[in-house]
Write a structure and sequence with these properties.
CATH topology of the largest domain: Aminopeptidase
Helix content: 25-40%
Strand order of the largest sheet: 11-12-13-14-16-15
CATH architecture of the largest domain: 3-Layer(aba) Sandwich
Oligomer: single chain
Number of helices: 7
Number of strands: 19
Radius of gyration: 23 Å
Distance between the termini: 49 Å
Shape: globular
Length: 346
């Protein structure tokens, strides 16, 4: 039977929550202080219909102060331009895509936040009701591991082989590779690899925050479609409601549609070019300073990083000083590599 655990890591400027499945990261929630509360999944707002696109059955909503969302509607429930509505954010915005809202009822007054999204701890409790909430150093280690795995492309399979997960603009491709997986019966080996890969892929897609169309390129030929479909339904069951799974196609692929709810983890942590963002590096620098400060109480700390990371870390360092005292210096060195972070006690 599967076993799930909960981990909550708080650091200046950021809270991370992790759900583990049999000791492997399954979900990662990252909430930063500067996140727009109006655009988080579960937030409830009064919005105003800014314009309608009847051909797309979509309304564009003004959430106030420049924030926007879209509202799909049915032909018999079409809002009117300028109308005030109460809505809930169903899908968070993604790179190049607006947030998606659902209509709760009539609204009154100007666009505004009515009730914020659940806190990270509440989200974790909603996902796993009966598990101890682990905090402290253990939670930080698990969250770091979850971040690293969420950003990887190639992942090992139990028993040998690997799978690669690569999102594109149109869909997410999952490729299964036998690699060094061994066995005398080739058909049995490929069947076991495909069944194992479905479970691993489901966990990793949840961890990475990926949804939409997913195409899984199965290994081998002559697949047992019934067994694979049953395995897929079990593996992706936690993603319901909203999961659709197609049969194995003639080219040995399985297509799925998974609900999108939160921003992909890669979009939170990386720049558009795939490198870690200055904000992510700044957060890592602050976590290292915090850990070193707690380990070497009373010592003066010195950190070195690039000027861009130092600038991004400045508001976080003010919050860190409230926790461990203003006993650290940050040197900005333009000659360092972007991802070089150095922290030491003096």
């Amino acid at each position: 039977m599967s076993r799930r655990g909960l981990f909550l890591d708080r650091s200046p400027g950021e809270t991370r929550g992790v759900v583990t499945l049999d000791d492997r990261p399954e979900r990662l929630i990252i909430r930063r202080d500067e996140d727009d509360a109006r655009l988080l999944a579960g937030a409830k707002l009064v919005a105003r219909v800014a314009r309608l696109e009847p051909a797309l059955a979509t309304a564009f909503l003004d959430l106030g102060s420049g924030a926007e969302a879209i509202l799909p509607f049915k032909p018999d429930a079409r809002p009117s331009q300028g109308q005030a509505l109460e809505v809930e954010i169903r899908n968070e915005p993604r790179r190049g895509k607006l947030a998606v809202a659902r209509w709760l009822g009539p609204g009154q007054g100007p666009p505004r936040l009515v009730s914020p999204a659940p806190e990270v701890e509440a989200e974790l409790r909603a996902l796993v009701r009966e598990a101890e909430m682990v905090t402290g150093r253990a939670a930080r280690d698990v969250a770091d591991e979850a971040e690293a795995e969420a950003l990887d492309i190639l992942h090992p399979l139990p028993g040998g082989g690997s799978l690669a997960i690569e999102p594109t603009r149109a869909l997410t491709a999952v490729d299964i590779d036998l690699g060094e997986r061994k066995g005398a019966d080739a058909k049995r080996v490929t069947r076991q690899a495909n069944l194992a890969a479905l479970g691993v892929a489901a966990r990793l897609l949840r961890l990475k925050g990926l949804g939409g169309i997913v195409v899984i390129d199965l290994v081998g030929r002559g697949h047992d479609g019934t067994a694979l479909l049953a395995a897929a339904r079990a593996a992706f069951g936690p993603d319901n409601p909203g999961v659709s799974i197609g049969p194995v196609g003639r080219f040995g692929t399985m297509e799925l549609s998974l609900p999108r709810r939160t921003r992909p983890i890669a979009e939170i942590l990386l720049r558009a070019d795939g490198a870690l963002s200055d904000r992510t590096l700044a957060q890592r620098l602050v976590r290292r300073l915090q850990a070193e400060g707690e380990a070497a109480r009373g010592a003066r700390l010195l950190a070195r990083c690039t000027p861009e990371v130092a600038a991004s870390a400045a508001p976080l360092l003010a919050k860190l000083a409230e926790l461990i005292g203003a006993r650290f210096d940050v040197q900005a060195d333009a000659g360092l590599a972007r991802e070089h972070l150095e922290v030491a006690a003096r």
